[in-house]
Amino acid sequence: MNTQKQFNRRFSFEFFPPKTPEGMAKLQTVRDSFAEKQPDFFSVTYGAGGSTQERTIDTVVTLHKQGISTAPHLSCIGATKKDLSKLLDLYKENDINRIVALRGDLPSGMGAHGELRYANDLVSFIREHSGDHFNIEVAAYPEFHPQAQSAEADLVNFKRKVDAGANSAITQYFYNADAYFYFVERVEKMGINIPIVPGIMPITNYSNLVRFSDMCGAEIPRWIRKQLEAYGDDSNSIVQFGEAVVTEMCEKLLKAGAPGLHFYTLNQAAPSLNIWNNLNLDSSGDRKSF
Ligand code: FAD
Question: Would the N or C end of the chain have less CB density within 10 A of its end CB?
């Protein structure tokens, strides 16, 4: 973890592109609350296979023009190089200089992988296309990707993305800080030397969290699961308990040298902002350094 301390800390908030004008209006309010915190960037997710393409572009360009650097997520599964080139050109024309490069997951019923199979192929393609224009973020999995052949293979595959030119990584969310520490230690031993920023998912709804975590391979430790289950329909207690647990984990991560935090906001302001405030990130002097 010590080598992660060489990097400036950075803080970012992730949104999904709203489907309706009402959703966009709500995101504007949410964006304004986060903008006050002067994060390093916002990011906007992308439906693999291009399902949110137009909405992602519109949301990214709108937020970017409002003054906080905004990064599109871009996935390669099911995409052609021609389409990806067009998107990269469009982002360059709009002065976007950061991209979260992903493989994505094939939507059910969609058979073709596209021309680039894995995220490392996309990172190479972005470098070929745009040189050093983009700061490229990739995904990291402290609890391993659900399709990984083995823990070892997943680490080797993570290294492929770094070797292809990724500048930094954002992790899948987790609730066990040791998984992150161990992951960082392993990749550092492999000679990987980029910031690996923990992805933070606030806990607000038990059943949604369980469904999503089962899908993406994030583990909810038994003691957290059992406590959340015990609250039943008492959503206030779930939120309070979740906030305390996640705040404590973030404190531990930052103290041990994690180079910042990336919040999966799900377009909700309060859950991430409450954690932010509990961490005193506004008043902790220069929050960017250790
Ligand atoms: P990869 O790094 O390509 O890895 C996928 C799997 O293939 C892994 O099991 C890996 O071990 C294996 N693998 C990788 N390279 C090779 C290789 N060369 N040879 C053999 N095996 C290999 N999804 C979306 O649809 N939209 C989003 O906006 C989005 N944003 C995300 C943001 C973050 C920070 C994270 C952590 C995930 C996000 N995802 C998103 C989910 C992501 O698309 C899925 O987890 C997807 O299954 C894997 O994408 P990846 O880029 O990690 O893939």
Answer: C
Place of tokens 């572009």: 57
pTM of the model: 0.97
The Cα–Cα gap between 242 and 208 comes to 13
Euclidean distance between CA atoms 158 and 144, whole angstroms? 10
* pLDDT tens, residue by residue, 177-202: 999 999 999 999 999 999 999 999 99
Bridge partners of residue 261, in order along the sequence: 11
Give the separation between CA 157 and CA 143, rounded to whole angstroms: 14
For this structure, is 93 an active site residue?
no
* Tokens matching residue 241: 């308990």
Atom of ligand 1 nearest to the CA of 170: 34
Q: Whose C-alpha lies nearest to ligand 1, atom 51? A: 102
Q: Is 143 in the pocket of ligand 1 (CB under 6 A)?
A: no
What percent of the chain lies above the pLDDT cut of 90? 90
Nearest partner of 42 among 69, 22, 8, judged by Cα: 69
Q: Which of the listed residues 103, 160, 194 should we mutate to test ligand 1's pocket, taking the one with most ligand atoms within 8 A of CB?
A: 103
Q: Considering just the CA atoms, what is the radius of gyration of the chain in Å?
A: 18
Domains present along the chain, CATH in parentheses: 8-278 (3.20.20.220)
pLDDT band at 285 (very low <50, low <70, confident <90, very high): low
